[in-house]
């Protein structure tokens, strides 16, 4: 059951980050989950574990990390599409 909650929270983190930055995550729901998980790792490495913790995710750093990840992915995809 814990893994299911982690998938749901990871997906929500990716979705919220995509809403904040105004860019869709490639891959739909799976992309949101991946952005949430990877963003949480990035955010916790940079900002620590401040704020509330839900399903093993420190929410504030996870959202900030997901925003960073989505921004970088969108820059890379934009440069690939131009070539």
UniProtKB/TrEMBL annotation:
Pfam families: Transgly_assoc (PF04226)
UniProt keyword annotation of Thylakoid present: no
Keywords of the record: Cell membrane, Membrane, Transmembrane, Transmembrane helix
Record's bilayer topology term: Multi-pass membrane protein
Positions of transmembrane segments: 6-22, 29-48, 54-77
Compartments (UniProt record): Cell membrane
InterPro entries according to UniProt: Transgly_assoc
Stated family: Belongs to the UPF0410 family.
Name listed for the protein in its UniProt record: GlsB/YeaQ/YmgE family stress response membrane protein
Species of provenance: Exiguobacterium antarcticum
Upper taxonomic lineage: Bacteria, Bacillati, Bacillota, Bacilli, Bacillales
């Amino acid at each position: 059951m814990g893994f299911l909650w982690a998938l749901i929270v990871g997906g929500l983190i990716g979705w919220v980050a995509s809403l904040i930055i105004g860019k869709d995550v490639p891959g739909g729901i799976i992309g949101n989950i991946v952005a949430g998980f990877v963003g949480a790792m990035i955010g916790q490495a940079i900002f620590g574990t401040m704020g509330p913790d839900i399903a093993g995710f420190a929410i504030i750093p996870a959202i900030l990390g997901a925003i960073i990840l989505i921004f970088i992915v969108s820059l890379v995809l934009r440069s690939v599409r131009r070539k």
